[in-house]
Write a structure and sequence with these properties.
Four copies of one chain form a homotetramer.
Chain A: H1 8-23, H2 31-47, H3 62-85, H4 90-104, H5 107-110
Helix pairs in contact in A: 1-3, 2-3
Chain lengths: 120, 120, 120, 120
Amino acid sequence: MSTAPADTLTQLRDLTRAFAAERDWQQFHTPKNLAMALSVEVAELAEHFQWLPTGAPEELDERKREGIRHELADVLLYLVQLADRTDVDLRAAALEKLALNAEKYPVAQVRGDARKYDEY
Amino acid sequence: MSTAPADTLTQLRDLTRAFAAERDWQQFHTPKNLAMALSVEVAELAEHFQWLPTGAPEELDERKREGIRHELADVLLYLVQLADRTDVDLRAAALEKLALNAEKYPVAQVRGDARKYDEY
Amino acid sequence: MSTAPADTLTQLRDLTRAFAAERDWQQFHTPKNLAMALSVEVAELAEHFQWLPTGAPEELDERKREGIRHELADVLLYLVQLADRTDVDLRAAALEKLALNAEKYPVAQVRGDARKYDEY
Amino acid sequence: MSTAPADTLTQLRDLTRAFAAERDWQQFHTPKNLAMALSVEVAELAEHFQWLPTGAPEELDERKREGIRHELADVLLYLVQLADRTDVDLRAAALEKLALNAEKYPVAQVRGDARKYDEY
């Protein structure tokens, strides 16, 4: 009998599965629809930042921070559901991507080369 | 002395912090810029689904699945970084949101009411 | 003295310029902020479609159609403003792009090849 | 013998209709799919701005400006097609929206009130 707590991503996967099943909402949750829903939530998140001068943390007041927190949660919940419906292990995929990025952007080559950051 | 593995979200937060620090990239990672980057990655994810008839799982071939897997990873990595820069505990925020959603959409009221799904 | 009516895109450019100037809002309208605002409006548009089975026209009721109409207007208004701030002639750019697309997707090669539509 | 040039929006509607018809692509162009395609193009536009310090015009070099021009064109082309498929007169909708916005944000009330811009 395990005493280890479930990993958050696994726990959220199980909770969102149950949530949708209880409401008979799986029928709406095609990968395509979940991808659209995810992009809508991300835009609601971006909306909090759109008119800020630079978007640095000190420009965020309490009201914005609370809104951002809720939208971040929505994004994570749809992300977990989309990964579940497409049989993707989010943890493995993210660790693999980090390893790929480390190869793609070697420290020695990109460090301090701010000007060209988005050209890599 | 703990032997428990770190939770994935904590682990990814630490790894992305180190990744950005080694490259001196934190200067680009304002919350606003991370929110934009997140929305760009989500669109790259959505792109895989845009012309599918319904977007059901059986319409996804291997090539698409591999692309989707990589984009899901990118979305998670930026999400974790944005949460980190805005001091949001993603796990707590997601669990809280699920509880709020459970109240907002009571099973007895919404179950099987597909037609009005998006009007709640 | 011309009696020709102004082209819609020119007219909207002039009207949005005046609108922002009267309110002293040009200071917020950096190209970057307008690009974010545009993506937020597009997401509000996409939201109307996200849970539809296929998104065919007959799935759109009157309420949705009215919402879509307003969001399409918002998208056009931000698009015109972003083009204005980046000195892009939208008409010329669109006609040029159509010509490029015609070369890129020759009728003889792509017609009826639905299966591979998104791989071109 | 025509005496007035067609309005750009009408012209682009006719050209995109012919373009899709020649390639038998209307089958993919449900309003939902066009809305997704539009959001993907807008993200490709946003991508040019994502790491800029403030996104002011002077931060845009020639390479970026050319990319932005092409993406603005793509956005307009999908916007016109989506409006066409949902029977929306873009010109009328935009003029109506501007009138609504003028009422919603009276000059006397919002002018110079930069701090609260996004709270209206």
